[in-house]
Design brief:
499 residues; mainly alpha; 62% helix; Transcriptional regulator; TPR-like_helical_dom_sf
Length: 499
């Protein structure tokens, strides 16, 4: 076996695209294929943190041979094939390169750790994480709930790979470690000013923080997360202020900080802090404009439109949604354009412009029908058929067409992936309110009771506010079947504070 010194002297081989692996992915997007990888891993008792970026690295040839955990998963997915059949180099040809070449910088080493894969194949080190960081809808089967979150409202275990990346280094590393929303470190730690310029490990930590906040919100709602997310956001902007050594890293930091500002803004939005949300969205928009980031700009305008609609400023909602569409058009994502058309439809509905709303809805449905693509932003993993139905239900509700609204809300609740607990609660609460206003109090009470049960897992002031409105509508119908039980349960439900 060659020594590490001899291995290090070998010239770096240029990456060759892994065309065989790309062909196996077929028409699925990288995110969808990554979901299938994680699902296959669960079937054989493995836990791998595969995401769209990992799939892209494999297809680009950056990963010449997977580690042993991924190897077992891939061979399970494609029985009868070898690693060579899947487009990988034989393990014997790359074994020992994990001793690292002299060209690899400390930053590059940390990136390898954070991403869960080495350049070659050295030892069967673990790739497990306590949950899959951003699980999109899996079209080929149900999405099971993951145990770490089934009983624990906030899982405080940090990923081993991230922890290793944060154990060494200066103030920038401390700031990056603060970005872990599962650690939810103190404000004092977040205030640490970086003593060295941030690099790829900090950018990776920032991106992971955004994913984890979104996952926790999907499962548990915003109210319990908002205050805790302030420290990671301050740490993110401290990293920006320190400045990165490379332009590519600076771009990642700007994009990550902007996305984190949007995520924190959404937590404020969903917990009823509209002024705070508006400020965070404006901060994200400014970051996008400074960095010329069209994708971030579209996302910021998208959320601004949603907030404006909820805050009773429908004309602003229309204008923000249209601005988002202008920013997003060059990005080539039909799904993103579909969601933005729905944001515009919500604004028209708030203006009681039925024609404008219907035209935007038709456009949204046509764009949605084009399907997913590789250009879809990662943050849009929530946007599937259920969300399309749910947002359309809200439009018809604002227009006072309760029958049509309840039909779409029912579809949304039925179609939603179980992973998005908060959205199921939202759609069910929407259904209850629409049924109540349609004059079907018994069905409204049944849906309301389901939503109340889900609020045992979800903390969302927005959903609580919707159910409070439903309770007021149902008060005169206390004698109808189930209404009295719903009203009593609602009255005894603890209200979520803004801690």
């Amino acid at each position: 076996m060659a020594s590490s010194t001899e291995t290090a002297s070998l010239p770096e081989r240029p990456s060759r695209p892994n065309l065989a692996f790309r062909q196996l992915r077929g028409r699925r997007s990288p995110a969808e294929f990554a979901a299938l990888v994680r699902r296959a891993a669960r079937e054989i008792g493995e836990r791998v943190s595969c995401d769209a970026r990992y799939v892209g690295r494999v297809e680009a040839g950056e990963i010449r041979c997977p580690n042993y955990a991924y190897e077992r998963v891939f061979l399970h997915m494609f029985p009868g094939r070898t690693l060579t059949d899947l487009g990988f180099a034989p393990r014997s040809s790359v074994r020992g390169r994990a001793a690292r070449t002299a060209a690899e910088t400390p930053e590059e080493l940390a990136v390898a750790e954070v991403s869960g894969e080495s350049r070659g194949a050295f030892e069967p080190y673990e790739t497990q994480e306590p949950y899959d960081p951003h699980e999109p809808h899996e079209p080929h089967g149900p999405h099971p709930r993951y145990e770490p979150y089934a009983r624990d409202h906030l899982n405080h275990e940090e990923s081993d790979v991230l922890r290793r990346a944060f154990m060494t280094g200066g103030g920038a590393t401390v700031a990056a470690a603060t970005l872990s929303p599962l650690g939810l470190t103190t404000d004092a730690a977040a205030a640490v000013r970086p003593t060295r310029r941030p690099g790829s490990p900090e950018a990776a930590a920032l991106e992971e923080a955004v994913r984890r906040i979104r996952l926790l919100d999907d499962r548990h709602g915003a109210d319990g997360l908002y205050r805790r997310a302030a420290a990671p956001l301050r740490a993110a902007y401290a990293l920006l202020d320190a400045g990165a050594t490379r332009q590519t890293t600076a771009d990642r930091l700007h994009s990550g900080a902007g996305e984190l500002a949007i995520s924190v803004g959404w937590l404020a939005h969903d917990s009823g802090r509209f002024d705070d949300a508006r400020s965070h969205y404006a901060e994200a928009l400014a970051t996008a404009r400074m960095n010329g980031d069209a994708a971030l700009e579209a996302h910021a305008f998208c959320n601004t439109a949603f907030l404006a609609r909820d805050a009773g400023r429908p004309r602003e909602a229309v204008r923000a949604a249209q601005a988002a569409q202008r920013a997003a058009r060059p990005l080539g994502s039909a799904r993103l354009m579909s969601l933005l058309a729905l944001r515009e439809a919500g604004g028209w509905a708030g203006l009681a412009d039925r024609t404008g709303c219907e035209q935007a809805l038709v456009r949204a449905q046509a764009l949605f029908a084009r399907g997913r693509s590789d250009t879809d932003p990662e943050w849009m993993s929530f946007y599937g058929e259920a969300e399309l139905e749910g947002l359309e239900a809200q439009c018809w509700s604002m227009l006072g067409d309760w029958r049509r609204a309840s039909r779409h809300a029912r579809r949304a609740a039925h179609l939603q992936d179980p992973h998005f607990t908060r959205n199921i609660a939202l759609y069910t609460a929407e259904l209850a309110d629409d049924l109540a206003r349609e004059g079907r109090p018994d069905e409204a009470a049944a849906a309301g009771l389901q939503a109340l049960a889900l609020l045992e897992e979800v903390q969302s002031s927005r959903i609580q506010s919707m159910l409070a409105g439903t309770a007021r509508v149902l008060l005169p119908h206390r004698r109808a079947s189930g209404v009295s039980e719903f009203l009593d349960r609602h009255a005894s439900m603890p209200r979520t504070g803004r801690a």
